[in-house]
Specification:
Elements lengths: L7 E10 L3 E9 L11 E4 L2 E10 L4 E9 H6 L10 E6 L18 E10 L4 E6 L13 E4 L2 E9 L2 E6 L1 H6 L10 E6 L1 H17 L2
Antiparallel strand pairs: 1-2, 1-6, 2-5, 3-4, 3-6, 4-5, 7-8, 7-12, 8-11, 9-10, 9-12, 10-11
Length: 208
């Protein structure tokens, strides 16, 4: 499990294709791999991946490697990132630590396309669109996770929704570098999905 509070951006070192998967290698601050073990879960752009190797590059930086299967490449934006590109990095939640965002599983539901960027002096508003079948789970003031970042939904109109980013989010994550046409990984709030699906089943039973 994760919190949606991204710890850092990480640089993509390489992506090597193998049999039905890609070996993804990223570069992070050395402090972000402390007490890391092979098999640990790390969210990369909101996708829960398993660390298969790691080590030091220099006194300040380390590498981490993951095997990304073809299905993950198909349903997320990890297949679109380029070498030297930036991805969001979050280690898994530890019991007893503060949860600053919301509970995130790292299981991406879909991707959304950025339609519009509106900047002001203190924040930036991003408007996205996704397949209309997911619209029931996007609620004003509800939680949503984009590229692994826990955000609060602003305006919702059909299958379009807007989020507002503060300077800290723009600095710490790769959301600030997005331009119109870019895709982000989307994970909807599981509690919201459960409530919506329960209400659907109750309505269906009452209609019988």
């Amino acid at each position: 499990m994760f919190t949606g509070i991204v710890q850092s951006q990480a640089q993509v070192i390489s992506q090597i294709s193998a049999n039905n998967f890609v070996r993804l290698k990223i570069l992070v601050k050395k402090s972000l791999v402390q007490q890391l073990e092979i098999g640990a879960s790390i969210a990369i752009n909101g996708v829960c991946l398993t660390a298969v190797d790691f080590g030091d590059v220099n006194e300040n930086q380390s590498f981490v490697e993951f095997d990304v299967i073809d299905e993950t490449l198909r349903v997320t934006n990890l297949g679109d990132i380029s070498d030297n590109g930036s991805v969001n990095y979050e280690r898994s939640l530890k019991v007893g630590y503060e949860i600053g965002g919301h509970m995130v599983s790292g299981h991406v539901h879909t991707i959304a396309e950025l339609l519009k960027v509106e900047s002001s002096e203190s924040n930036r508003a991003l408007t996205f669109t996704c397949d209309e079948k997911w619209g029931a789970y996007i609620l004003p003031k509800g939680f949503i996770t984009l590229n692994g970042v826990s955000l609060t939904v602003g305006k919702v109109e059909n299958n379009r929704f807007t989020v507002h980013l503060i300077p800290e989010t723009l600095t710490r994550t790769n959301i600030g570098a997005l331009i119109a046409g870019d895709n982000v990984n989307v994970e909807f709030d599981q509690q919201t999905m459960s409530i919506v699906e329960t209400l659907k089943r109750m309505k269906a039973n009452n209609d019988l």
